[in-house]
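As a next step, we paired sequence with structure tokens, yielding the entry below.
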Amino acid sequence: MHTDRRFIRPAATAAILGLALTTGVFAAPVTLDLTPAAAAVEQAATIDFTRTGSITIHKRAGDDTETRADGTEMDGVPGEPLDGVEYKLTLVQGYKTSADVAKGQRMTLEEAQAATGGAVSTGTTGPGGVVTFDNLPLGRYLVEEVSAPAGHVPGGPFLVSVPMTAPERTGWNYDVHVYPKNTVNAAEKAVVDAGKHTGDEITYTITSDIPTPAEGGLAKYEIVDDYDENMVTVDPATITAALDDGTALTPGEHFTAEAGADGKVTVAFTAAGLTKLSEKADARVVTTIPATVLAIDGGETVAEGEGTGGVVVPNTAQVIANEGGGSADGVTETNTVETFFGKLLVEKTNDAGEALDGAKFELYDCANKDELGDKISVAGQDTWTTVDGQASINALHVTDYADDAPAGPAKYCLVEVEAPEGYELLAEPVEVEFTREALGASEGEGSADDAVTLVKKITNVGTTQPSLPLTGGMGIGILAALGALIIGAGVWLAKRNGTKA
């Protein structure tokens, strides 16, 4: 019995080894590839026209690399999986004979795009950036990207054959895997608005990527800036564009700028501009849009009582790009930048609460009342005089938020340069906390009926000048006359007494 066992073990081992060699399991000693793609690669030299196939799209975001797909499922493909990309497949040449295959393989992209009447399938990439089109009739397919998520430029159309020659070039792959890429088209918005008031110019800057152009160059590149027409106005003639590598772009030659009636301005690149961008795809486009601040007469008010007030001026831009080659437009939206403005209402009264007219003020940037900065001009005006006890300054930039970021500490200071008649000048500047919180306050001295206006109440004291008569005035004249009368009376009495004697 022991001898029989020793004989059976080697025999069984040999049988298993022989089976492995004949089935080819040891061709891949590390991993056993049982994916559908691998199973669908047949070593037959001719196509089985009775079969169906599939196309699996693995969508990636990122720049192109030297890695090339071979139609099979691959590991470690560069780029981030991209969900939410919609695709359309159109059968442009069915494969029923070898002649059909030869015709489909020779078909150009332009011919495929002109073809009509073929079967159409649509699908959207899901988790992992994958979408599979199953049970496809054999043939040549036009693959088109219908739309891409925001911030990505759709890739151009391409052709896929089902089946296609397997990587070993000795068989056919009926389940084809493709790895198209989308260019990530980032764009950022910035604003320079610190210390800018009505009549001043704030500057919006959009810095945006250039997508990798298809053969033949970019087909479209536009920047659409959406501004608040209630608070700013844009002159298209002042818009400039350049590349961040120092390349100049000329208005009219490389781009045009037009303002619409809906608060949008469009910067569109011409054919010459698209050529320039295609040549400089590694650079970024820098578009500068100056905007003049208007007085507050509308705009989006920040609600009172929420801790912030004033009028907020939001600004967002879109970059619309098409890499060419028949691809769809891609839309990239920038971040939103915000600027805040408010009104300052000065209320001038006396101790009895009566309104005082004729008080003239200047306004300064300041850290405090003892450290005045620059004198402020608003819409060309640098002094304000009370009428019916009030003077309004419209519109001032808030002091706690500038260039789209929290700022401060900073204040405004009112300096009275002329007092109402019969009243004393203020002895020192008056500090004004012109913050979003102060504008939005629902209680306190600075509260107003809206969340846009900050009220500053200032009281003047009546004149403290002595009530003595002025030199040369009526009081002196009367005294002189009385003196003359006394002297005259003395002379008369003296004469009279002399006559009697």
